[in-house]
Write a structure and sequence with these properties.
It comes from Sorangium cellulosum (strain So ce56) (Polyangium cellulosum (strain So ce56)). This is SH3b domain-containing protein. Pfam families: SH3_3 (PF08239). By secondary structure, the protein is an alpha+beta fold. Among the domains are: 146 residues, no CATH class; 61 residues, SH3 type barrels. 25% of the residues lie in helices and 26% in strands. It is built from six helices and 13 strands. The strands form three sheets. Strands 1, 2, 3, 4, 5, 6 and 7 form a seven-stranded mixed beta sheet that branches. A four-stranded antiparallel beta sheet has the order 8-11-12-13. Strand 9 and strand 10 form a beta hairpin.
Length: 311
Amino acid sequence: MLGDVLDMAKADMAKRQRPLTVDIPRPGDEQPVWSRVGVIALVGFVVGVAWPKLAGVRIGPTVPSDVKATAEATAAPASPPPAAAAPGSAEPEAKPPEAAAKNQQQVVVGPGRITRCSDKKNKKVEDCGELQFDPIALPRLKELAQCPAALGVDGKLPIGFELNFEKKEVQVVKGKKTSLPASTVSGILQCAAREFSNVSLEEVPHKYRRYSLVYTATFYPPGAQADAAKAEAGGGEQEQAAGTTTSETAVSGLATVSWDTALVRGAPKEGDVVMRLVRGTRVKLVGRQNDWYKIEHRGKTGWMYRGAIGL
């Protein structure tokens, strides 16, 4: 026992008597092993970030459903609702005219009338029948609201046309009985001549060589309320018509609006909306052009699609 203790004391004394050595590491030995660092970072990413997503585990709090729905609805662009179409309509219901239109120059043009026609021998014909020129004339005449000479004009202007089917020419001429200044009339007629400069007569059915037509354009200055019924009723010259520029036929009778809301237009199909009538409204029938009926209601006239009155 005593021997063991002595041996341990000798060993301890031998360690103390060893020389002290100091190891100084080289600069390269202190650099980290980058491959090990990359492996450790990859393992940390998989464990801390990728694994919760792959496993469908949410580490943080979730957004409340009602707040999320509100945020998505706010971020999503709102699309305008489609225009409602009445049942059986051949065209979609048009939107109501904007109030801003009242602050613009407006032009109301009614159907034209034939004042004269002549045959191939240039002989005057008493009954010229009909010439479907309204689909060509009315849209172009309404563009006169943009004519600089028409700005602020308030009044009626008969505008005449000379159609020569032999030469395929359309000539704009001055009508009669207008209270507008001569300079204004000249400027408006120049605008009209430009509007009709490229008109083709190839697709206009006709029976005679030459026709003289007249349309009455009623101008309303900005802020005035255009009244299509009054414009048409007060139209034009008192000279007896030799024919009509539409295929309108006279009808008579009463009808009842069958749609929830029916549009009444100033001209068939593409005319401006002049009235809106609700289901059950009684109207008077005064004319017809293909699938459109000309009606009267409370002193106003317009065109209504036949399906709107159950015809």
